[in-house]
Amino acid sequence: MNTPPIKASPHAHAGNSIGRSMGLVMLALVPATLFGLYSFGWPAINLFAVTLFSVVLVEAWCLKIAGKPIQPGLMDGSALLTGWILALSLPPWAPWWIGVIGAVIAILLAKQIFGGLGQNLFNPAMAARVALLISFPLEMTLFLEPRPLFSDAGPGFLEGLFITFGHGFEADAVSSASILGHVRTELGQGVALSEATAGQYDFWSLAAGSVTGSLGETSAILLLLGGLFLLYKRVITWYIPVAMMGTLALLATVFHLIQPEQSPGPLYHLVSGATLLGAFFIATDPVTSPVSVRGQLIFGAGCGALIYIIRSWAGYPEGVAFAILLMNACTPLIDHYVRPRIYGRDRKGRPLSYDDSGEKPA
Amino acid sequence: MLNIAATDASARKIHPLPGGLHLPDNKHQSSVRPIMQAALPKRLIIPLRQHAGNPAEPLVKAGDPVLKGQKIAQGEGLISAPLHAPSSGVVSAIQSLPAPHPSGLSEPCVVIETDGEERWAELPAPMDYRQANPAAILERVRAAGVVGLGGAAFPASVKLSPRPGDGLHTLIINGAECEPYITCDDLLMRERAAKVLAGIDIIRTLLQVEKTIIGIEDNKIEAIAAMRTARDLAGYEAMEIVVIPTRYPSGGEKQLIYILTGEEIPSGGIPAQIGMVCHNVGTAAAVADAVLEGKPLISRLITITGEGVAEPRNLEALMGSPVADLIAQAGGYTPKANKLILGGPMMGYTLFSDEIPIAKATNCILAASTAEAPDPGPALACIRCGRCAEACPMSLLPQQLYWHSRAKALGKACDYNLFDCIECGCCSHVCPSHIPLVQYFRFAKSEHRREEAEKRKAELAKRRHDARQERLERLEREKKEAMRKKQEAMKAKKTAAGGDAGDAKQAAIAAAAKRAAAKKAERATQGEAPKNTQGLSAAQQRQIDEAEARRAQARKTAHSEDRARPAAATESPPQD
After folding, report:
1. Tell me: the pLDDT tens digits for B209-267?
2. Rounded Cα gap, residues A78 and A92, in angstroms
3. Can you give the pLDDT at residue B573?
């Protein structure tokens, strides 16, 4: 018999690991990603590749500077996933440096400066997206209608390189507003909802993803499938997505009933923009969301409410990133105040006491 | 499985555990073989501490012959238990040897070289527990050295003596055996259900409880059936046998009570506070042996299992049998054996040698392969996933406990109720970063206990110091007070004596001077030398003369040098 390694109980392990969880999340993102890359063609593929390459490079550099082992740090897949989600939230034909700067913001500023994996307060991908949106409003709001790979409308490989790494593209010629932006502008000008969405809003095209939008946010159905896969694999729990989408849908329903011509209905909010990507893949980031079940429900509800508020009344047409960041900031507070009741203790943490009859006091 | 649960038509509601894990139970490996009597080892090593509480005090010495079942050590204090010779032979030594304990440290043990004759000592007569005095039954159980066989090894007699005011109403019998791999309770219930039930009947008679609930996990179908049959045969209809879902750690006392009754033991308390007592099925069988047959606790069922043994099975083994002997009787090691664990994979501890003997609390020897107990690898950063909190059956927040334990912020860890942790290992089991959470909590607990002990010590020292300081000050005060009083008294006396006091003193001094002068004059006239210079030798006389000469010389010089010098200085002897 060999000399046993010194190790305390438990000796058995469930066999899960950080790398496995991250891998499953990426696997769940594959369909929506492939669809996005196909829809927006070579420039999108270039941007995706540049962003992922950059995050890995920045992560490796940060780990090296911090004196941490580089290989295990990269192998956990957390940086790759951050880059992946960031790329999915970018306008598909954004220039290469948007991806690079986004990678630096996400990994260096939003993650490693806080102490690396597990220590960051804000979701790195969303922090980068918001920072980019504020810093480069033009590049970050240039959306376009899908121009699928190998179609006549889609640019070829060389043209794609030119769009991503060269001087960009003729914005006026191809750009178009996302549905959220369009409806917001029209409503802002006093146009009635039915008129603003005429010929623009079609639930099934939004669900299928044949619409203008960010690289990986367009196909609601594929994102939903990915989310369900994660739930099935128990990588995420339902509390945050359901609370978030439920609150958003509830608010949208209430306001739609009150003022049908000014407020779009719940389905519109659920399938447009980054709602699904945010609910299943971003708000559920374990590092930046609360631990307890009640805390997660509060967190999700807060995200949903903020999304609705920002989309309806704030300066931006889309609010998922802002909402998640704001709720990220509340996470430590939620974790501090919302704790589960412990066995043998009451809600205030005092040992249970029984009166003389042996019955639990109400 | 479902219909088994359904046949127990009792209306008892099962309260599902919060948290907990559904683990691969790995029980079939050892449960397919019947219980086998382990062969008598050549040497038995009986640790003196096999129970919670004080170690037992040996009653034998090296060279003493012992008989099987003879008491060889007696319990010290209330929470302790006596020990008995598991077989006949000769005590070869009482010495420190590695004992079954997580630390692997040595403890005093009685070593018996067995003679193979298995000669029994005279045992007490069987008792009719229905007629006997409860105190006598309790004394029998205590004298038989029965301790809780579920793991804690708490002396059974303590838990069997109800204190006035406890208001006990429910006896919970733990047949859950939730830990993977272990099947000794399962096999005990399958093969010796009647004995277990007899023991339970003794216990409930002693405790005078209204309800008896036996909880068994639903993966022990044969045990459930055997127990039900035996119950019906013996006519113990009032005993409820409740099938509970297989979920680790449902066999924890707190967890089982919650599952069966929905009641929670207050934090830091004991089941008696809510009118309940919990005993293991193995303990019940040991109680039956003690009361009905007069047999002391000298053997137990133990599961030998894992991919590291050829024929996993349950053995009826004598206390003090070395692990190596028992492994050999389970077919010996296989090449896959990588690690020896005493207990199960969730709460057991690693053994560093198979020379270690088994004790009363040992329920399993797991010779694990690399796959069964993998090397966890280095711990990664916590990603706050909360799996640990989800798995925790006590609803603690292991993640926060981990941060604070790691930072040695023990006060904060206690705020997060560190001491409610039952160390079941669920959190570590599911941690994707492979952080040894339970180990951190054990460390933090012992560290906190140490700090508390030091604090108490420091407080005691401070109290003693303060008391001493106060005493000294008080003495000082009293002294001053006494002095003051004395002075006052004198003053008062003085005033009473009027102005003569000063003159009287002067007169006394003058009289004394006069007396001294008279004495000196008298001595001079008689020419008497001082007494200590009588009978000197010549050498001594010479020394004195020389000294006197030097003194005279010095006096002369001093006078010539400084006439103004005070006389006292010139009187001092020369320094050379």
Report:
1. 989 999 999 999 999 999 999 999 998 888 999 999 999 999 999 999 999 999 999 99
2. 22
3. 47
Q: Name the pLDDT band for B502 (thresholds 50, 70, 90).
A: low
Distance from the A118 Cα atom to the nearest Cα atom in chain B, whole angstroms: 4
Its pTM stands at 0.80
pLDDT tens figures, B92-128: 999 999 888 887 788 899 999 999 888 998 888 888 8
| pLDDT for res B572 | 46
Structure tokens at B47: 């640790």
Answer whether B369 touches A (CB < 8 Å).
no
> B-chain residues within 8 Å CB-CB of A341?
395
A5: chain B residues, CB-CB within 8 Å? 339, 375
The tokens describing B19, both together, are 């948290």
Distance from CA of A113 to the nearest CA of B (A): 15
Helix (H, G, I), strand (E, B) or coil at B66: strand
**Contact between B372 and A344 using a beta-carbon 8 Å cutoff:** no
Contact call for A11 and B442, based on CB within 8 A: no
Spatial CB neighbours of A128, under 8 Å, sequence gap ≥ 6? A86, A102, A103, A105, A106, A110
Chain-centroid distance, C-alpha A67: 30
Please list the residues that pair with A144 across neighbouring strands: A175
Minimal CA separation from B266 to chain A, in Å: 4
- For residue A23, give how far its alpha carbon lies from the nearest alpha carbon of chain B (Å): 13
Chain A residues lying within 8 Å of B433, measured CB to CB: 17-18, 118
* ipTM metric: 0.84
Map tokens 């969301």 to a residue: A289
Q: How far is A158 from chain B (nearest CA, A)?
A: 41
* Residue in the structure block whose two tokens are 């006896």: B171
Stated length of chain B: 576
CA B247 vs CA B109, B130, B194: distances in Å: 37, 37, 27
Residues 6+ apart with CB under 8 A from A302: A247, A323, A326, A327, A330
The 10s digit of each residue's pLDDT in A194-204 is 776 766 667 67
Q: pLDDT tens digit string along A53-104?
A: 999 999 999 999 988 888 888 888 899 999 999 999 999 888 999 999 999 9
Q: How many helices (H) does chain B have, and how many strands (E)?
A: 18, 17
The chain B residue lying nearest A343, using CA atoms, is B394
Answer yes or no: are the C-beta atoms of B96 and B106 closer than 8 Å: yes
Q: Which of B258, B345, B396 sits opposite A10 (nearest CB)?
A: B345
Contact call for B428 and A349, based on CB within 8 A: no
Report yes or no: B283 and B146 within 8 Å, Cβ to Cβ.
yes
* Integer-rounded Cα radius of gyration of chain A: 23
* Pairwise CA distance, residues A36 & A214, whole Å: 8
SS3 B350: strand
Q: What is the pLDDT of residue B562?
A: 53
* Partner-chain contact B429 A343, CB within 8 Å: no
What single letter denotes the amino acid at residue A106?
A: A
- Of the candidates A6, A10, A358, the beta carbon closest to that of B428 is on A10
Supply the DSSP string of B419-471, one letter for each residue.
GG-----HHHHH-TT---HHHHHHHHHHHHHHHHHHHHHHHHHHHHHHHHHHH
Q: How far is CA B134 from the centre of its chain?
A: 29
Residues in CB range of A234: below 8 A, 6 or more apart? none
Domains and CATH numbers, chain B: 2-37+127-368 (3.40.50.11540), 382-490 (1.10.1060)
B351 vs A68: CA distance, rounded Å = 34
* Residue to test with chain A: of B385, B395, B402, most A Cβ within 10 A: B385
Q: In whole angstroms, what is the distance from residue B564 CA to residue B149 CA? A: 99
The closest CB to that of B373, out of A11, A17, A340, belongs to A11
Q: Is any Cβ of chain A less than 8 angstroms from the Cβ of B420?
A: yes
